[in-house]
């Protein structure tokens, strides 16, 4: 009779897998090349090569804003371990118009405080669940314009970038590294559908060049 693995061993494997994902993500964020210069051309920024390690493990996918004349697009850096790192797309007005950011607020009106979301363990217990239209944060600029950043995908919110509360301008100066907005992980069964719902870099550049 084949011995069955104990619950303790199963839990150990689950914890190890979770720790591996968190360690990999931490390593990637530290290695991602900070972009110090402002975004002035979304096509050149979209085609910018990331550091070799990130280039190997990430793909860039975009949620394109369909509202006429808006272009409040976001970008997901999708890692091979299924983590989706949310950033502003180069075509987003905050980046494209070089806006000065006054505040990034993760408390969504009377809704949940996104800053309190945090997944623990293999099943990411305690992480807030997001639908594509759920708001992650509000960005307020010095010219009093406000932008609402929505998830764009369905999944669990593992964390938001707490640095933005103190240094909101990281959204434009270090968009793909220290200026990321949040980390989301879709359910394993939804990963392919999530990727299919977003636009790849070639399609994104083509669509935005035409507007």
From TrEMBL:
Family matches, as InterPro entries: Abitram, Single_hybrid_motif
Residue ranges of the region described as Disordered: 1-23
Cellular component annotations (GO), alphabetically ordered: nucleus
Organism domain of life: Eukaryota
PANTHER family listed in its UniProt record: PROTEIN ABITRAM
Official protein name in the record: Protein Abitram
Gene name for this UniProt entry: RvY_13682-1
């Amino acid at each position: 009779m084949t011995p069955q693995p104990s619950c303790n061993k199963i839990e150990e494997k689950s914890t190890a897998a979770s720790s591996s994902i968190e360690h990999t993500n931490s390593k990637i964020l530290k290695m991602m090349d900070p972009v110090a210069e402002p975004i002035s051309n979304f096509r050149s920024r979209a085609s910018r090569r990331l550091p070799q390690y990130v280039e190997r493990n990430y793909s860039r996918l975009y949620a394109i804003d369909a509202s006429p004349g808006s272009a409040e697009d976001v970008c997901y850096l999708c890692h091979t371990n299924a983590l989706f790192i949310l950033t502003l797309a180069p075509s987003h007005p905050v980046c494209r118009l070089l806006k000065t950011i006054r505040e990034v607020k993760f408390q969504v009106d009377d809704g949940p405080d996104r800053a309190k979301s945090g997944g623990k363990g293999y099943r990411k217990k305690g992480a807030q669940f997001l639908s594509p239209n759920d708001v992650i944060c509000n960005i307020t600029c010095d010219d009093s314009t406000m932008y609402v950043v929505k998830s764009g995908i369905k999944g669990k919110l593992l964390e938001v970038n707490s640095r933005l509360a103190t240094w909101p301008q990281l959204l434009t100066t270090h968009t793909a590294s220290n200026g990321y907005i949040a980390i989301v992980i879709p359910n394993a069964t939804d990963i392919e559908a999530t990727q299919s719902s977003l636009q790849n870099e070639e399609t994104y550049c083509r669509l935005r060049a035409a507007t």
